[in-house]
Amino acid sequence: MRKFQRITKIALATLAALILTTSPALAGKKNDGPVQIGQDLQKNKKTSESLFPIVILEPGAYVLVTNLDLTIDPLATADTDAIQIAADNVSLNMNGFSIIGPGSCTGSPVDDCDPSGEVEGGSGVDACAGEGCVKNTTVVDGTIRGMPGHGLRLGDAARVERIRAEENGEGGIGVGGNSAVTYCQAIRNDDFGIAGGDSSRLTHNTASGNGGPGTSAGEQCFVAGNVLTGNIIGLFIADNSGYLENIVTDNNTNVSSQGVGDPDQLGKNLCGNDTGCP
Length: 278
What we know:
- By secondary structure, the protein is mainly beta.
- It has 1 helix and 28 strands.
- A hairpin with a 5-residue loop joins β8 and β9.
């Protein structure tokens, strides 16, 4: 009897081990934490299809567990997005990983990128790939480099933190209204570095060498603590927005207003060799 019980315990333990080792790699259950996204997790797609775009259809939390490298996918084209977000209320933690596209840019400020974004190019993370943009998207902690389109293209009420967007063929980081972009870097993108829609907060970012404005701010925005250098335009800001404690220097044009008047200086800014800005 004891021998039978011992054999039964061994059999049950073996069965449990088999169940654990044959569980799917993609953790999609609610009690498993954030849904994992990784290039190796996409390889169950048909070999006749590109691994990209990865489409997020449900609200919730998602996390990268590998780099996403479009350059090693032979079926990805210049208009292929890496990640498309098609639901409101999505949080994407890039977890220190990178989205890598096939592009590169020359000049500082940028004068050319290949592939170019003149035709709608693929973006790193695109929340506006459908008929309109989804809202309440959060993207944090990663790098997006060499995409033919935008690095990030998000809708209203977006939050972006600690993202580096570099040498993308259109803009670096673009968000809709009522959004926040903070502690990000936008380096040598073909168009704007960072762009925020109306009533957004753009704070503590660095933008340099971009082929358009380092930072572009819509109406009623708050722009503070940024370093904007070596861009075509340092700060392109609506005349009813406010800015303070920015360093805006060595741009072709340091500060330019989007309206007929001047934006409000809420405190000191360094523009060129002067503490005064337009």
